[in-house]
Design goal:
Strand order of the largest sheet: 1-10-9-6-2-3-5
Bound molecules: 2-amino-2-deoxy-6-O-phosphono-alpha-D-glucopyranose
Helix content: 25-40%
Radius of gyration: 16 Å
Structural class: alpha/beta
Largest sheet: 7 strands, parallel
Low-confidence stretches: none
Strand content: 15-25%
Shape: globular
Order of helices and strands: EHEHEEHEHEEHEHEHE
Number of helices: 7
């Protein structure tokens, strides 16, 4: 059984706004748990929507603890981090503030230790309520790349060639990511996919075999999984 709510919108903006509303509902419904947030181009209009909604309802996130999905390991490189990006696009723009942001430190020389620490922090803080996700062109979620284990946990991962190229990372770049198991542990999962480049990944996710070759497909069967996309991302669906 598919068990995934699929919603297609005319524009990326409308898809982002609807995903943003679902996230706000999730934050409210699962308010004792964490709100998982991702970096990436797809998230920018979702965060714009959250910022606008919060401006109309100041304090909307004042009690929310946000938590980071994934981070590039960049010790010594001084690259801009995903946590900085999330701060810039969302958190620093919330007029009523937020409780806290549980980040992954990508600057560490001990990323394995950092991955275990992040995993433990999530558990200590009540676990994930709502998790907001993009999807990679190869079907990755977070940095769970094709071939990942369905029960994978927060860990250090190698990146797929297509991910390295699309993001302009050096060949040996690694990342820390929540695993499929932690993402599945969220009470609600919201995936946003916009643009034609994502259409093969979306098709594999919802119409292909549930398989490690498309990590997003491993989320199928979750009781509260919703996919928001624009027409371009949905163009290959039957
Ligand atoms: C990236 C990151 C994710 C992101 C996804 C989609 O590589 N691992 O955090 O959600 O892939 O990114 P984008 O929205 O830029 O296409």
């Amino acid at each position: 059984m598919l068990r995934c709510s699929v919603r297609v919108f005319d524009t990326p903006h409308l898809a982002a706004a609807a995903a943003g509303e679902a996230f706000i509902d999730g934050v409210s419904e699962f308010n004792r748990r964490l709100a998982g947030v991702a970096a990436g181009r797809t998230m920018k209009p979702v965060y714009d929507h959250l910022v606008s909604a919060e401006a109309r309802s100041s304090g909307l996130f004042s009690r929310t603890t946000f938590v980071q999905l994934d981070e590039v390991v960049s010790a010594g490189r001084g690259d801009a981090s995903f946590s900085d990006e999330i701060d810039r696009h969302l958190l620093s723009r919330l007029s009523g503030g937020y409780r806290t942001f549980l980040v992954i430190n990508g600057q560490t020389n001990q990323p394995d230790v950092e991955a275990n620490r992040h995993r433990a922090t999530i558990l200590e803080n009540g676990g994930l309520g709502v998790q907001l996700l993009g999807i990679g062109v190869n079907g990755h979620v977070g940095f769970n790349e094709p071939g990942c284990e369905p029960d994978s946990r927060c860990r250090v991962t190698e990146l797929a060639m297509s991910t390295l190229k699309r993001n302009g990372y050096p060949p040996d770049t690694r990342a820390v990511t929540l695993g499929i198991a932690e993402i599945r542990s969220a009470q609600r999962i919201i995936i946003v996919a916009t643009g034609a480049a994502k259409s093969p990944a979306v098709k594999a996710m919802i119409e292909g075999q549930k398989s490690r070759s498309c990590p997003a497909s491993l989320l199928r069967g979750h009781p509260d999984l919703a996919l928001f996309m624009d027409r371009a991302a949905a163009k290959d669906l039957s």
